[in-house]
From TrEMBL:
The lineage of its organism: Bacteria, Pseudomonadati, Pseudomonadota, Gammaproteobacteria, Aeromonadales. GO terms for biological process: lipid metabolic process. It holds the Pfam family GDPD. It comes from Aeromonas cavernicola. SUPFAM superfamilies: PLC-like phosphodiesterases. It comes from the Bacteria. Signal peptide: none annotated. GO terms for molecular function: phosphoric diester hydrolase activity. This is Glycerophosphodiester phosphodiesterase. PANTHER family: GLYCEROPHOSPHODIESTER PHOSPHODIESTERASE, CYTOPLASMIC, GLYCEROPHOSPHORYL DIESTER PHOSPHODIESTERASE. Residues 1-228 form the GP-PDE domain.
Length: 230
């Protein structure tokens, strides 16, 4: 079962910062997941719509200038990184799962993945692009059809994994609160991988492994990697 560092090693450093990415890489993770938003012509690695929880800024991220966002403290003196800064740090050393947060991200992320393949040693096989915003995910698929898609859901759909299959996704990315055996089995029957967020407890890890889940997103990759290797 693949262990994916959720927003980097976000249980050990401020989430979605270069420090969290560096720690995740030092732990030897196979994959890192990040969140990407667009503001003022730049792609920023930040989860929330608003700035308050994860920085000393105020207001809606997408409404601010590059200079303002670059000046903020995202915790422990870390800046809010750009997507390119995260890519330049990782340099193809692990998979990068990029969650598109809302509109105006698909085209720009598609272009940057191509640049990272040309300049930073990534391959198309090292990306997974996901979103709750399924129209934006479909737009990304048109731009880069060779890249794997992760169809995110925070619910248990009536038609189980059908929505992910219709999107042409590689994986269904599910909330640990709603995952069940029927959804796992249906996804696998449709040829989909099953990835579950956010899993920080070893007992949850064991249960999901027994159910046949293919990967988990965790804030504590140190803890769950140790469990997986024990």
């Amino acid at each position: 079962m693949k262990i994916i560092a959720h927003r980097g090693a976000s249980g050990l450093a401020p989430e979605n910062t270069l420090k969290a990415m560096t720690i995740a890489l030092s732990l030897g993770v196979e994959a890192i997941e990040i969140d990407v938003q667009e503001a003022d012509g730049e792609l920023w690695v930040f989860h929330d719509r608003r700035l308050e929880r994860c920085s000393d800024g105020e207001g809606v991220l997408s409404e601010h200038s590059q200079s303002y966002l670059a000046s903020l403290n995202a915790g422990e003196g870390e800046a809010i990184p750009t997507l390119w800064q995260v890519m330049a740090l990782i340099t193809g050393r692990c998979e990068l799962h990029i969650e598109l947060k809302g509109v105006n991200t698909a085209k720009a992320v598609a272009a940057l993945t191509q640049r990272a393949e040309a300049e930073l040693g990534f391959t198309p096989e090292q990306w997974v692009v996901s979103s709750f915003h399924h129209p934006e995910l479909a737009r990304f698929a048109k731009a880069r059809p060779e890249i794997r898609l992760g169809a995110l859901t925070a619910s248990l759909p009536l038609t189980l994994a059908q929505f992910a299959e219709e999107l042409g996704a590689w994986s269904i990315n599910c909330d640990v609160d709603f995952i069940d055996q029927a959804l796992i089995d249906d996804a696998h029957a449709r040829g989909l991988q099953v990835l579950v967020y956010t899993v920080d407890h070893p007992l949850d890890q064991q249960r999901l492994a027994q159910q046949g889940v293919d990967g988990i997103f965790t804030n504590r990759p140190d803890r769950l990697l140790a469990q997986a290797h024990s």
